[in-house]
Fold this protein.
Amino acid sequence: MGLYTAHFLGYVGAVNQAEMNDEPLLSVPGFKIGKAGLEKLWEKKLRGKGGNVKLEVNAYGRVMKEIERQNGVEGKTIHLTVDARLQKVAQDAFGDESGAAVVLDVHSGEILAFVSVPSFDPNLFTTGISVKDWQDLLSNERKPLTNKAVSEHYSPGSTFKIVVALAALEAGVIDENTRFNCTGAMSLGNHKFHCWKHSGHGSLNVVEALKHSCDIFFYETALKLGINKIAEMARLLGFGSDFELGFDNMQKGIVPDKEWKEKYLKSKWQQGETVIAGIGQGYVLATPLQLVTMLARVVNGGFEVAPQFTKLSLKDKAKIKKLPIHQKNIEIVKKGMYEVVNGEGGTARRAYFNLNGTKMGGKTGTTQVRRISMAERQSGIIRDENLVWKLRNHALFVGYAPHDKPKYAVAVIVEHGSSGSGVAAPIASKILKAAIELGI
């Protein structure tokens, strides 16, 4: 299972001099300690405490008597919530793609699968990795050593429309019946902002806008709402947090607002920046772990679950805080996410499944890495898929199941996968179907 668990379990390796200086017992020949992942994070718990015996020996090395003994303490056994069967299904679902997926129990935050691909063989590090193997890992453009679930952050794209919709409903700037007319473009000052559907979607309410992922609806909604209200809801749902998991190089992403731009970019916030934030572009950045936590907090009825690798006690579950979000607004957003997958014309219709009445809901997202230039268009490159791999758009999907009584949430990102609906959503569908069938 090494290739399936490398990015969260990590690996053990030989003790270096600095570590020996901190703890002399580690100088015992052949001693190995956790160097990455949970092996490193929980090293002292897993290792326990070494014992020692002081002996008196004669000139021939024969033990004459025991002078002093200090008994060791056995290391703890830690049971993880990751399900090995689901982990394998989730990782295999990516094939040769690069990306990440995280599955949570929406009621506890327990991590059921945690995938970053491509992976690496942790055994390479146990006895000391060769120069060739090390160079091969470093030179791979798909970055197998990077834990993409927490150490990379991405524009969330249209998955962020969940946040904007809920923020707008809570603030009262829209309700279930509010409609905006999408003609395919919207003007603001001298700028024109386009919908992905150039011919337009026509008149839509929030449920229909989520179903069809209409950009114009969310441009208009974001403008009415304002960036600070959007940021407030994003933080409430887990954006900007590392959840104190303790991994090395964890990203917190970016939740931009007026104060953030003044502080870090020394300039004033512009309305156009609110517009593109409304569809999860611009300065907004999030990790796959944050995306799945956001979804879990929405579909569980607004409870502040946090991702974790160990099982919560009933006492700890009872302490999970209810967020100040109205259930009626959560139901409106869930209705939109249900339509994304199950409604005719929904953006993730191809990921639809029905297991004895159990279905999933979710939201697609595609984030632009780079525009296709005029010169490229003239040379025949007219689709994202025609670009070289590293210039293609990222594909995202967040989903949950069962649709009527949510238990599982998943976030999937396929780096340079071009299409959230065509690439990321089918992967999420396989994962959620497996979770249901396995009865985890």
Notes: The mean pLDDT is 90. The chain has two domains: 2-70, 84-438.
